[in-house]
Amino acid sequence: MPLSSLLQDSIYSLLPRVGDATNCIKDSNDVCLPNSQTNINNLLNQPILPSIQSRISYTDKMYYLAFIFVFGLIGIIASFMFYTKIFYVKNKTNPNKINDNMNTYANKSYTNSSPNDYRITQPIAPMTSHVRFNDVAGIRQAKDELLEIIDYLKNPKKYQDLGIHLPKGVLLSGPPGVGKTMIAKAVAGEAGVPFFYQSGSSFVEMYVGIGAQRVRDLFARARVSAPAIIFIDEIDAIGKMRGIDNHQEWESTLNELLTQMDGFEQQSGIIVIAATNQVENIDSALVRSGRFDRRIFVDLPDIKEREEILKVYLKGRKHNVNLAEIAKLCVGFSGADIMSLVNEAALYALRDKRDSITTDDIIAASDKIIFGTKKQIALSESQKKIIAIYNAGKAISQYWLLQDFEKISLITYSNAQNLTKIPECALKSEMITYIRVALSGNIALEIEGLESANISKQDLQEAKNIAMTMCKDYGMGVTITGTQDDVLDILTQAYNEHKSFLQLYKQYIPIIANELLDKERLDKDDIQRILLV
Question: Which CDD domains match (predicted)?
Fold first, then answer.
């Protein structure tokens, strides 16, 4: 098809654009053509440049509109962010507004990659402590050091007038169960101030910044409620020494805690109390002056303190118990252990349908706490005899060599604990004595003509551990470096020495064993009565 024909067809497609009113034909640029130019040839002679220019102009306009829309949207977002920042700064500098917005802010939800929503923090509300020092026994030393802090919280003006600055933080350390949390609650209860409790592990999460935000929220709440006490349990979860194994979230949480403790004044009325079982792992930055600069060690209760604790937990319960004797029985018990002891004893009385706790209930509960639950296994007569002879040999050895014998029992336990405690400063001969006692049960069986029994597993392991420690750590073997031959030599020496020793008392082994079979339990007085006849 000729080119002219194609152009004519294209022009004919424009004919519907003819304007009837003006009697003219309009091109795409709205240029009105006279009638004399309506033929096809004249149309072909018209320039098409205005039409192309019109289309370019329209496209540019659309680009301009899109440009204005995008940058306008960016401006709106930037204005919103700027307003939010100013609003946050104003709230931060005005503590009175923090309390109004804290619940809303604390409840903001953030969604992570998992399907579940992650809540950045839970609302932190103060507790009202009803615990008093009269409710906490066995803390005489800690109580004396905390009385002035209580007085400061009650009468801050008295200290401010004299220019006295009390420590911002108190670090309570000691074994588990000695009552560190109860002490903090008692301080808050005696002072009558709000008590903010948080566990150290609740601050650290896998998402960076969440722990630091929780620390800020905690201190913000305390400032609004001042005077107040902040108690952080297990602070070593966030306050342990910084090292190569610490992650970024832990680091930011610790830094925020340090910043917050530096940020409030000593006259703010806020006291931070923290507790830890591992004070040696606490970062040195936490315990420097101006932070946790008062440290109180809460030790296990002595015999008098154990008696006081027993009085507290037996208060309101019917009992027929000699507290002094039970306190002697509870050597090494913490306050929490004694609470469990009394509770277990009450359960024993309840099972027997009695309303009064007896000494036997306390003894049975003590055995359960120390050793675990009794094995409900029917022992044959031969098995009972083996256990009785084994324990008789150990009782004789402990009584004469260690003088720390308490009791032996015919009952086997599911979680027997190794209670041997070697002194901090012990000679080689003293450590060998502990090995001899650990081997004494099997030696007694051998003297009575019996084979070794598998009930000696823990004792043999203890003997090996002591011998290896002597050789490897203390250089008490033949060679200074300590070899397996050195360990074997010490074990063999201890075995031979103790076999000769126990031969001197072999007549007492069957006597003690038979009485143990009859009574199932013998204490130190029973063993002393037999051996000193």
Answer: RecA-like_FtsH (cd19501)
Q: How far apart are CA 154 and CA 252, in angstroms?
A: 34
Which ranges of 155-209 would DSSP assign to H, the alpha helix?
A: 156-161, 180-191
Q: What does 471-514 look like in DSSP terms, one character per residue? A: IIIT--SSSSS--HHHHHHHHHHHHHHHHHHHHTTTTHHHHHHH
The answer to whether 397 touches 437, Cβ cutoff 8 Å, is: yes
Q: Which residues contact 474 (CB under 8 A, 6 or more apart)?
A: 428
The dihedrals phi and psi of 232, each to the nearest 5 degrees, come to -115, 110
The per-residue pLDDT for range 51-106, each reduced to its tens digit, is: 444 444 556 667 677 778 777 788 888 777 766 655 444 444 444 444 444 444 33
> 233: which strand partners?
199
- Residue 87's contacts (CB-CB under 8 Å, 6 or more residues apart) are none
Taking a C-beta distance cutoff of 8 angstroms, is the pair 267, 160 a contact? yes
CA distance 379 to 381: 7
Amino acid identity of 404?
Answer: D
320 touches 358 (CB < 8 A): yes
pLDDT band at 326 (very low <50, low <70, confident <90, very high): confident
DSSP characters for 47-104?
A: --HHHHHHHHHHHHHHHHHHHHHHHHHHHHHHHHHHHHHHHHHHHHH-HHHHHHHHHH
**Which of helix, strand or coil describes residue 354?**
coil
Neighbour-count burial for 273-298, b at 16+ CB within 10 Å, e otherwise: bbbbeebeebbebbbeeebbebbbeb
CA dist., res. 512 & res. 531, Å (int):
9
3-state secondary structure of 270: strand
Q: What tokens were used for 333?
A: 């018990």
- Domains in the chain, ordered, with CATH? 3-46 (no CATH), 133-297 (3.40.50.300), 303-371 (1.10.8.60), 381-531 (1.20.58.760)
Whether the bond into 2 is cis, omega within 30 of 0:
no
What pTM did the predictor assign?
0.53
Query: What span, in angstroms and rounded, lies between the C-alpha atoms of 33 and 42?
Result: 10
- What whole-number distance in Å separates Cα of residue 387 and Cα of residue 394? 11
